[in-house]
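Annex B. Sample input.
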Amino acid sequence: MQSALFLAVQHGGHMERGGRRRSEAEETEKGRMKRTIIKDWKTRLSYFLQNSSNSNKRKSKKAGKHRNYFRPSPEEAQLWSEAFDELLANKYGLAAFRAFLKSEFCEENIEFWLACEDFKKTKSPQKLTSKAKKIYNDFIEKEAPKEINIDFQTKNMIAQNIQEATHNCFSAAQKRVYSLMENNSYPRFLESEFYQELCKKTPITRAAQGT
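Annex B, continued. Sample output.
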């Protein structure tokens, strides 16, 4: 009886230690996955920040100035939480948001919104028509490579509108996509560790990195 009790206690101890080891291993794995995700976000952000500043580099070279920013300051990043428009109006905020959406595999929404913004600035009627067809082929038609999630009626309306393209061809769809991003992706972005890290850490410039 005593030996049976001893074996039961010993077995219970082994189970407890085994459970603790499994728990520790799970926590270690979670920590590793979290670091991998953050590292991937950093890589994507760096890529987008670099690309978003390319046009500015060319302009600054013409003006005899050359500034290279690696990331926004925490104060600048904190402003993005005040309103979705604040985020989109800031080139680094937009780049960070695009990186975040890419990590969630829904970057077609911001790409469509940006394409619409560019479309509305087009002055040439010929270019307006060609851009309208490209946006339709890329984002609207069934099984488009970057198809956005809009209703069938809106798709039909756009298909009719682009026959005689105007600057309002995609207005309804753009509002729909904007609302989706503002109410769904934007809150998740603000809660992400990726964004929180941008708000907390000190800014690093490429010039500083090279020293």
